[in-house]
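Support reply, case 0932

Customer input (verbatim):
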Amino acid sequence: MIFGLGVDITDIARIQAAQTKNSQFKARVLTAAELAIYADLSPKRQAEYLTGRFSVKESFGKALGTGLGQVSFLDIEVLDDELGKPVVTKNPFAGRALVSLSHTDTLVMSEVILERGTA
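Our regenerated output:
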């Protein structure tokens, strides 16, 4: 049964500007595992990756119904599986979290569906 649905669209340039202004911005958004992946990416992919994770975590807060006020960016972790599909690997929700990400050169869109009572 679907508990919540969250959608977010984030401008890549806005997240790049936040990272440029505050070099610790990425550490506030990305978990240690996410930061390790980020460090190995090209600058263009870093911007897309950081924006993507930011967007997913915003979507997660919306799906949960609390926003990010009661849930921290670091409470949620999204890593890619062996096929490159993003998977929520850590989160505070007692159920299943499904995620989808897409981007253009300038925008990232994410969607999170939270399910309860599923196997």
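We compared this against your earlier run and they match. Two observations from our side: The longest strand covers residues 2-11. Helices lie at 12-21, 25-29, 32-39, 43-64. Please reopen the case if you see a mismatch on your end.
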